[in-house]
Design brief:
Blueprint (H helix, E strand, L loop, with lengths): L5 E6 L3 H11 L5 E6 L38 H4 L16 H14 L6 E2 L2 E8 L10 E7 L5 E6 L1 E4 L6 E2 L13 E4 L13 E5 L3 H10 L5 E5 L10 H6 L7 E4 L2 E5 L2 E4 L4 E3 L2 E4 L3 E2 L12 E3 L4 E3 L1 E2 L3 E2 L5 E3 L8 H16 L8 H17 L17 H12 L7 H16 L11
Length: about 425
């Protein structure tokens, strides 16, 4: 794919979009790029707002950050390979500090000059091409403040919009008939609204752990039940049995139905509830994609196809999706993905045939199901069988890169996971850096 200087569109100025812009900015003779960001600043998910539902620009609020959020990764594990988190920050930074880190990253590499803020991409369309595998793309965008609409043509598009914005509710009979407060953790911000109430959390991941810490001091009772998966991720039930959680926290196996203001558990127990908060993950959403892009989203919007290595369109090799995986090493893996994408665009890394890439992608998915994962785990790298370290090493090997991450990052992640599985309320008390 080598050739003259290419025009590149980057959709989103969160961590993945900024990382893409940073690596492109280091190649000014080869690429010129523009970033389209719906918000008023960089940061994406990490831009906190008290607002939920519809934002001031008329579109759904993007951020899922709650007021008390602290990272689940230590600084040395989380940071980009080419820009350190401040030594003045604690081992586990707050969401405000991560947002500032991303602002500093953009300023350090002078990225903001190419970012169109308050600008939402409304349509991405493939254009006819002499080389079918390397089409150009039409990007239509709207300024949410002036309503001005622009349409531009690009040689390459990087989709970097994240995957924590469209809530995925569990399929529990009667859930929609619940007469109390029902929300997804995407719309949770602070605990005061739940003072003295009986609250049920549905899920078994890191968000549940944070909300237990946030809510248990103010609620009358907090019931935690497993959400979408049969997989034991953090052994929360086992930790509860050992007495690690506050006394007003109780774990149950699963809610089988909801009726009015009550929940029914797997063993038939009926429990009253004032509020249900679903911490059950997210769906992939790309409302701007035209049919000509050839992208389908399956399994209740949890599997994006056809993407080789979870990032490269197997038919159109100038369309990349960065950071769509559910994984803890998002900053680092985005860096590796973009570096590999540029090597492909440079013509220095040859892709397999479309048929072989599709086969590898389908084989990966089928193997996940055979190993007991669920259809919505198509892009998950949180499990023992499919983890961030494995994916990083797969990208490094395929692209022929030296391991720029080094053993410290892998070891740090493994240590954090081990301590969280042993006691998820105390793992942040250790220094992993």
């Amino acid at each position: 794919m080598s050739g003259s200087k290419r025009k590149v569109a980057i959709i989103g100025a969160g961590p993945s979009g900024l990382n893409t812009a940073r690596l492109l900015s280091a190649r000014p003779t080869d690429y010129e790029y523009e970033v389209f960001e719906r918000g008023h600043c960089v940061g994406g998910l990490w831009v906190y707002t008290d607002k939920t539902g519809i934002d001031d620009d008329g579109y759904p609020v993007h951020s899922s950050v709650y007021r008390s959020l602290v990272t689940i990764l230590s600084k040395s594990v989380m940071e980009f390979p080419d820009f350190k988190l401040s030594d003045d920050y604690p081992t586990f930074p707050t969401h405000e500090q991560i947002h500032q880190y991303l602002e500093d990253y953009a300023d350090h590499f002078n990225l903001k000059r190419n970012i169109h803020f308050n600008t939402i991409v409304t349509n991405l369309k493939r254009l006819p091409a002499k080389e079918p595998q390397c089409p150009k793309w039409s990007v239509t965008a709207k300024n949410t403040r002036t309503a001005e609409i622009t349409e531009k043509t690009f040689d390459v598009v990087f989709v970097c919009v994240g995957h924590y914005a469209k809530s995925n509710f569990p399929d529990i009979p009667g859930l929609k008939s619940f007469t109390g407060t029902l929300l997804h953790s995407h719309n949770y911000r602070k605990p005061e609204a739940f003072l003295g109430k009986k609250v049920t959390l549905v899920g078994d991941g890191p968000t549940v752990v944070d909300l237990i810490s946030d809510l248990s001091p103010v609620v009358a009772e907090l019931i935690v039940c497993r959400g979408r998966s049969d997989e034991v991720r953090l052994n929360l039930y086992g930790q509860w049995e050992k007495g690690f959680f506050p006394k007003n926290v109780r774990f149950i196996e699963r809610v089988t139905s909801v009726a009015s203001d009550t929940l029914v558990s797997l063993d038939g127990t009926v429990m009253p509830a004032d509020a249900i908060i679903c911490c059950t993950g997210y769906k992939h959403s790309y409302p701007f994609l035209d049919k000509s892009c050839g992208i389908t989203i399956e399994n209740n919007d949890t599997r994006v196809r056809p993407l080789f290595k979870h990032m490269i369109h197997t038919k159109y090799h100038t369309l990349f999706f960065i950071g769509i995986m559910e994984n803890p090493l998002e900053f680092t893996l985005a860096y590796l993905q973009v570096a590999m994408a540029l090597k492909i665009l440079d013509g220095k890394l040859k892709l397999p045939s479309e048929r072989d890439m599709n086969k590898e992608t389908d084989d990966d998915y089928e193997k996940r199901l055979e190993m007991g994962l669920k259809p919505f785990n198509a892009h998950s790298f949180y499990t023992k069988q499919w983890n961030s370290t494995m994916y990083a090493k797969d990208i490094l090997e395929f692209a022929g890169f030296e391991d720029v991450l080094g053993p410290k990052k892998y070891e740090g992640l493994a240590n954090i996971v081990d301590k969280a599985i042993n006691n998820c309320l105390t793992f942040r008390q250790f220094n992993y850096d």
